C-alpha cells in the first residue's frame, strides 16, 4: 500500500497527535522533502519523538524512511519525455485513466471485504432501501436504486430531504438508508440519518475518506479515496471510487442468491419488451 493511502486508511484509529501529523503530511506531501523531523515537529508544536514514533507505527524505520517513500511514490515514471503539443490531450487521457485506477485501488484497500459483504447482506434482507445522494451523487444513487429494483429489492430514490424525512417516519427495523455524500457535512442529511437509526433502521454512508458527521451517524461507512491537487480532476476520481463500490455491492448481491440472477434476467426481459416512446 502506498504511504499516503496507508496514512488515510489508518487515520481514524490514530491518537489526536498522530492525526495532526497525518493531516499535515496529507496536505503538504509535495513539500515534505523540505521538512526534517525537527522542522515538522516545530511546525506542529509537538516533540520530535512523536514524529519518529508516528513513522515507526506505520511500519517505517523512521521519519527519513517515511519521507523517502512518500517522495518516491509521487515521482513520475522515469524516461517520460516532454510531450509535443499535439500529444498533450492523449497524455492527459492516459493520466486520467491511471489516476482513476489508483483511486479504485486505494478505495479497495480502505474498505475490507467484510464491510462490503455486511452492507450487501443488509441490503439483500431489507424490507425496503431508501437512497439519497447529495448534489452530484443524486444521479449515482438513482442509478443504483434502479439496479436494486431489477434484483427484486424494494428501493426508493429520494430527490430531496423533505420526501426522505416523510419516508423515514414510516420506517422500521429491517429498512436501510443508503446515503451518498462526498463531504458528508450536510446537516439535514445527518439529522435524517439519526432519525433513521431512531426508527431501528440501518444507515449506510458512502463518503470521501475524511472525518465527517455523516460517518458518525451511520451504522457502517464505506469510504472513497480519490485525491488530486487539480480541482477539476479530484471529483472525477471520487465518482470513479463511488461507482466502483456500488458495482462491487451489486455483484455481491447478484451472486449471493441464485434466484436474484433469475429475477434480474426476467426484469431485463420485461423492460426489453416494453414499447418504445
From TrEMBL:
<dbReference type="Pfam" id="PF01418">
    <property type="entry name" value="HTH_6"/>
</dbReference>
<dbReference type="InterPro" id="IPR000281">
    <property type="entry name" value="HTH_RpiR"/>
</dbReference>
<dbReference type="InterPro" id="IPR035472">
    <property type="entry name" value="RpiR-like_SIS"/>
</dbReference>
<dbReference type="GO" id="GO:0003677">
    <property type="term" value="F:DNA binding"/>
</dbReference>
<dbReference type="GO" id="GO:0097367">
    <property type="term" value="F:carbohydrate derivative binding"/>
</dbReference>
<feature type="domain" description="HTH rpiR-type">
    <location>
        <begin position="1"/>
        <end position="77"/>
    </location>
</feature>
<dbReference type="InterPro" id="IPR001347">
    <property type="entry name" value="SIS_dom"/>
</dbReference>
<dbReference type="InterPro" id="IPR036388">
    <property type="entry name" value="WH-like_DNA-bd_sf"/>
</dbReference>
<dbReference type="InterPro" id="IPR009057">
    <property type="entry name" value="Homeodomain-like_sf"/>
</dbReference>
<dbReference type="GO" id="GO:0003700">
    <property type="term" value="F:DNA-binding transcription factor activity"/>
</dbReference>
<dbReference type="GO" id="GO:1901135">
    <property type="term" value="P:carbohydrate derivative metabolic process"/>
</dbReference>
<keyword id="KW-0805">Transcription regulation</keyword>
<keyword id="KW-0804">Transcription</keyword>
<dbReference type="InterPro" id="IPR046348">
    <property type="entry name" value="SIS_dom_sf"/>
</dbReference>
<dbReference type="Pfam" id="PF01380">
    <property type="entry name" value="SIS"/>
</dbReference>
<protein>
    <submittedName>
        <fullName>Transcriptional regulator</fullName>
    </submittedName>
</protein>
<keyword id="KW-0238">DNA-binding</keyword>
<dbReference type="InterPro" id="IPR047640">
    <property type="entry name" value="RpiR-like"/>
</dbReference>
<feature type="domain" description="SIS">
    <location>
        <begin position="119"/>
        <end position="255"/>
    </location>
</feature>
